[in-house]
Amino acid sequence: MSIIVDTDLCEGCGACLTSCPYGGVEIIDDIAVFTEDCNLCGACIESCPVDAITLVRGERIERVDKSQYKGVWIIAEHYKNEIHKVAFQLLGKGRELSNTLNVNLTLVILGDKFDDKLEEVGEYGVDEVIYVKSAILKDYYSDLYVNTLTDLITEYKPEIILIGATPTGRDFAPRVAKRLNAGLTADCTGLDIEEETGNLMQTRPTFGGNIMATIRTPSSRPQMATVRPGTFKADKTAKKKVRIIKIEKEFKEKDTVTKIIKIIARQKEKVNLEDAEIIVTGGRGVGSMEGFKIIEELANVLGAELGGSRVPVELNWLGEDRQIGQTGKTVSPKLYVACGISGAIQHLVGMQNSEIIVAINKDPLAPIFQVAHYGIIGDLHKVVPALIEELKKTKSE
Ligand SMILES: Cc1cc2nc3c(=O)[nH]c(=O)nc-3n(C[C@H](O)[C@H](O)[C@H](O)COP(=O)(O)OP(=O)(O)OC[C@H]3O[C@@H](n4cnc5c(N)ncnc54)[C@H](O)[C@@H]3O)c2cc1C
Predict the structure, then answer these.
(1) From the CB of 381, is ligand 1 less than 6 Å away?
(2) Whose CB among 10, 131, 176, 275 lies 3.0–4.6 Å from 52's, allowing a Cys bridge?
(3) Which residue is closest in CA terms to ligand 1's atom 28?
(4) How many CB atoms lie within 10 A of CB 260?
(5) CA neighbor of 28 nearest in space, from 39, 38, 14
(6) Rounded mean pLDDT of 117-135?
(7) 76 with 105, same domain?
(8) Residue 341 CA, ligand 1 centroid: distance in Å
């Protein structure tokens, strides 16, 4: 590993000097020069306002010409000729990012028999669809995806690529990123554009979810991120006329090292938290399995799905398919009611994108109130029955 300074970019401002904890850099003739005290920690890279410093791992990586990269891509995966819903959710976020950058939003599909479905995606604000068509691509072939996507990205040079953090997305995304020497941030819960630089700010939980890290990949392109289903919302309000680029390929089984013998569909989940419009949840504060009866009743009155934090799942008060958070489901319903949940960061990352959050907690300092739109401070065993009664009255009126 070594550190290099681009002498054309370096202005000798000294920001690296101030940021270096080891005194490993000097400014000589208005250029940063690294001394033997530099331990390659990389603190200076973040601080450099002109991106002149690069840490090189292994072979020397050429600095990419970022000006050649334009546009936001969403890679759609599909099963039985249906596009996975996470692609539409990513288009919602992708439209926002592409509006900020004033660039095109593109949906990329590697598949077959999608010809009639491509215009429809215009409802989600897509400017362009790149459709790689081949009969074999009706199924997912890991190596064909990796090769085809790498070639497409090398040719079209998008600056941002968003992929669903599904088993399929998690399989091909890192392999494509490696081929392209690009940065990839997995399981992002927030995506934004940095105003001054136009870089993608990729936020995700780290260190067991105890802190949220915002990651940038300022010196490589494209910037790639995976996002779990349910993190963002599909948005049908931005209808566009779609430009379709269709690329016909004659892939054969001999072109892939994989042979698909049988596809076994996963059993459909009984609990569908990701698509629920209303979710009522309980945490340790509910107190017991018996205590969950009123939480369930509130869910029934509201026509909601029932969920919970990790604690009631660990205590067997709830099934594990109902856990919400970092190691459970990610949800973004219209209404999320949290009863007796403190609001640990590992829970918040799974529900903080909900449209309206109502929290019931007896502790006024519970962190859940920091994300809640409406907070009720009180004992849930009194508040929830009162709410149920009022809701029933409203329904019967
Ligand atoms: C790697 C890792 C992954 C994790 N993944 C997840 C995850 O996916 N999902 C998740 O939820 N957690 C997860 N956790 C656990 C997380 O850190 C918290 O421990 C957990 O979310 C706390 O659950 P809780 O809010 O129900 O319980 P607590 O934090 O104990 O909070 C209980 C709350 O109930 C309130 N309360 C008590 N009695 C009442 C009452 N009668 N009326 C009203 N309020 C009352 C209390 O004031 C308190 O705020 C993870 C942790 C780690 C380390």
Answers:
(1) yes
(2) 10
(3) 342
(4) 11
(5) 14
(6) 93
(7) yes
(8) 5
pTM of the model: 0.77
Q: Do both 191 and 162 map to the same domain?
A: yes
CA nearest neighbour of 143 among 259, 250, 241: 259
Average pLDDT over residues 71-81: 96
Which of 228, 234, 255 lies closest to 168, judged by CA?
A: 228
Regarding whether 195 and 311 lie in a shared domain, the answer is no
Find out whether 184 and 142 touch, Cβ atoms under 8 Å. Answer: no
Last residue of a domain, one of 187, 222, 254: 254
**Dist. CA 191–CA 153, nearest whole Å:** 21
Given a contact cutoff of 8 angstroms between Cβ atoms, the answer to whether 217 and 200 are in contact is yes
Torsions phi, psi of 95, nearest 5?
-60, -40
**φ, ψ of residue 202 in degrees (nearest 5):** -110, 110
Residue 150: give its domain's CATH number.
3.40.50.620
The b/e string for 178-210 (b: 16+ C-beta within 10 A; e otherwise) is eebebbbbbbbbbbebeeeeebbbbbbbeeebe
Measure 284 CA to ligand 1 centroid, in angstroms.
6
Which range among 209-218, 320-329, 337-346 shows the weakest confidence by mean pLDDT?
Answer: 209-218
Pocket test for ligand 1, best of 326, 348, 380 (most atoms within 8 A of CB): 326
Per the structure, the complete domain to which residue 314 belongs is given by 278-396
Ligand 1: distance of its center to the CA of 266 in Å?
Answer: 30
pLDDT score of 257 more than 80: yes
Better-predicted residue by pLDDT, 62 or 338: 338
How many structural domains comprise the chain?
3
Has residue 59 got a pLDDT over 60? no
